[in-house]
Amino acid sequence: MKFLTATLIASTILMGGALTVHARDLTVVSWGGNFQDAQRKIFFEPFAKESGKPVLDESWDGGYGVLRAKVKAGTPNWDVVEVESEELALGCADVIYEKIDWQKLGGKEAYLPAAVSDCGVGNIVWSTGLSYDADKLKEAPKSWADFWDVKKFPGKRGLRKGPKYALEFALMADGVPAEKVYEVLSGPGGVDRAFKKLDELKPDIVWWDAGAQPLQLLSSGQVVMTAAYNGRISGINRSEGKHFGFVFPGSVYAIDNWVILKDSPNKDAAMDFIAYASKAENQAKLPEFIAYGLPNLGATKLVPDQYKKELPTTEENLKGAIPLKVDFWTDNSEELTQRFNAWLGQ
Hints:
Elements: E1 7-8, E2 14-15, E3 18-19, E4 26-30, H1 33-51, E5 55-59, H2 64-72, E6 80-83, H3 85-94, E7 121-133, H4 144-148, E8 157-160, H5 166-173, H6 181-186, H7 190-201, E9 205-208, H8 213-220, E10 225-229, H9 230-240, E11 244-260, H10 267-277, H11 280-283, H12 305-308, H13 315-318, E12 322-323, H14 326-344
Parallel strand pairs: 4-5, 4-6, 8-9, 8-10, 11-12
Antiparallel strand pairs: 1-5, 2-3, 6-11, 7-10, 7-11
Helix pairs in contact: 3-14, 5-7
């Protein structure tokens, strides 16, 4: 069951001894937990104070059907929602989001190209890449070719269970330059080539489902290296004193986005909130809490050096990294998942 939390950031306004009736308060929806705690401190509360209007925040577990149902049912009870890239693409196609006023945001050129959409604004960037325990390896792996090299680096490997990311990494291990991966994957024989490369490593793969599992696999020594999420790696290094490395070249970064649900009664206030949360000086406050990248190109420059090196949007970390091609996975996810599951069972 979806867990919802709500925090009202303002008091009811009383004038002349009578209750003034207002339209529903601006409602912003994100992913909950420590991440949303940080957003509340950095975005929600300061925006409410600056605008002089209440902000209600709730959390959700994702799922495009939830958003579509709210819009199709009539006036939605949510205004601004943080969504993943696939949910952004589907909602844009189905026209369940309002158009973004990019003039309020300082123009499209101020953001990573992959963070720009007619109906969504990139909010955070997170990467999936090669990770390892620096305390257990004398030499650090530098590429997916190293990941596939079981002679040079004996031991098991961890990969996320599913075709997404596994196919991209397999092609890179087979010598395809990162910037050409989706061109090859979309072309004749590309998918076959990726599965053939996975065949080579299949006996040595430990498959994982949840983001916490790669950390457990590395900590226990069950794998010598694994695909993992960069924020998880930096988090355990900070909290438990681990020395897990993360290789940004060859990583695939994805972007979460702010959207405004179609026919929101607070459309203008929603746009004002997104503009506030997208300011470089405000985005730059997030890495102190969690190592997510910042879509505003000016924000990373404002992050203290002690946090900057961990971000996927730092200029150095973007070298050799590629954005997840959402259109490819929107079009092919079902078919490739079926093929992957059949391959896994062979």
